[in-house]
Amino acid sequence: MGTPITIKELAAWLAEQNWSSFAQSLARAYTRWGRLSEKQEAAARSMHAKCMARNAAREASKSATPPDVGFYCTSDGTFYRVQSNKAKTNVYAKELIARQVGDRPYWKYVGRTPFSNLGSDAKLTREQAATFGHTHGHCLICTRELSDEESVMRGVGPVCWSKQGWG
C-alpha cells in the first residue's frame, strides 16, 4: 500500500471533498479542535480508503484493453454482451439478467467494469448459448422466447443462430 496518511493530510483531503457534507464537517472539526475523535478519524480513514480503492479500480478499467464486440461467458457463468456505442468510438458491456426460468431475460448496462474478465477464452460458445436456451426457454442473444421446434431443439433462435455463424 504505501505509508499511512497522517491526520493532517487526511483533514486536508477531507476539506477537498465537496461531494460530501460529512467530509466537510470533519475537516471543519479538525480545523477548529486540532484533532478528531477516535470514531471520526476511523470514519474519515474508511472514507479515504474507499475513495482511493474506487479511483484505482476506475483507472484499471480505463487501462484494460476492451474486448472485441460480441458475447462472452465468464468462469462463474455470467453472460456479457460487448457492443459499440452509436458513434462507434467506444465499447461497453451489458450483463444478462435472467431472474427466473420462464421470465424473459434482459441485458443490463454495466459499462467497462467486466472488461478485465473478458478475454478471448471467455467468448461465448454455441454450447453455452444452447444450454441457456434449453434451461430458460429464451434465446440468449436476443432474449426472445424460443417457440418453433428447431429453435427449441438448438436453444438459439434462427436469426441469432445464423448471425453468430453457427448455421
Protein described:
The chain contains six helices and four strands. It is an alpha+beta fold and 167 residues long. It has two domains: 57 residues; 94 residues, no CATH class. It has a four-stranded antiparallel sheet, with no helix packed on it. The radius of gyration is 24 Å and the shape is elongated. The termini are far apart.
Q: What is the strand arrangement across the widest sheet?
A: 1-2-3-4
Structural class: alpha+beta
User: What pattern of helices and strands is seen along the backbone?
Assistant: HHHEEEEHHH
Oligomer: single chain
Unreliable stretches (pLDDT < 50, length at least 5) are none
Question: Helix count, per DSSP?
Answer: 6
CA gyration radius, whole angstroms: 24 Å
Helix content range of the residues, please? 40-55%
Round the mean pLDDT to the nearest integer and report it: 88
What is the tally of beta strands? 4
**Largest sheet geometry:** 4 strands, antiparallel
C-alpha end-to-end distance: 52 Å
- Gross morphology: elongated
Beta content:
5-15%
How many structural domains does the protein architecture include?
Answer: 2
Salient structural properties:
167 residues, 2 domains, four-stranded antiparallel beta sheet, alpha+beta, 6 helices
Q: What is the gist of this entry?
A:
With 167 residues, this protein is of the alpha+beta class.
Provide the fold topology.
Layout: H1 7-16, H2 21-33, H3 38-63, E1 70-73, E2 79-84, E3 91-97, E4 106-111, H4 126-136, H5 149-154, H6 158-163
Antiparallel strand pairs: 1-2, 2-3, 3-4
Helix pairs in contact: 1-2, 1-3
